[in-house]
Amino acid sequence: QVPLVESGGGLVQAGASLRLSCVASVSGRTLDTLRLGWFRQAPGRQREFVAAVRWIDGSIGYAASVKGRASIFRDQAKGLVDLQIGSLKPEDTAVYYCAAGPRLSTFDYSDSDAYVSWGQGTLVTVSA
After folding, report:
1. Dihedrals φ, ψ of 123, to 5°?
2. Alpha-carbon gap, residue 108 to 2, rounded angstroms
3. pLDDT tens figures, 79-93
4. Pick from 11, 8, 17: which is nearest to 96 by CA?
5. Of 114, 79, 66, which Cα lies nearest the Cα of 3?
6. pLDDT tens-digit profile of 98-119?
7. In this predicted structure, what is the pLDDT of residue 20?
């Protein structure tokens, strides 16, 4: 298990940008064995993939719904993985979760089954 703590959620207006942060409280050696991802879950909907990064080489993937609007960053010194989303829309309203899973998982990085540790989530509300 990887302790994960998200922060940065809140109420924003449509069109604005928001940056979420996730701290992974493990060593750098452990981080190198992981991929870290962001998922979100809107009310009444299933959890969906947003973005992920493979820690050791920075390989990144995005969901089609946010591609071009989102950026995922990793800070190797601080063990942070941030997610920035621009041009926010009301449909981006959701609880956003940080997740960690084995780098060499047999699951696709966009599959929630690829992740074994989850943060508590941070709520993002986008007003029209």
Report:
1. -85, 130
2. 19
3. 999 999 999 999 999
4. 8
5. 79
6. 999 999 887 889 999 999 999 9
7. 98
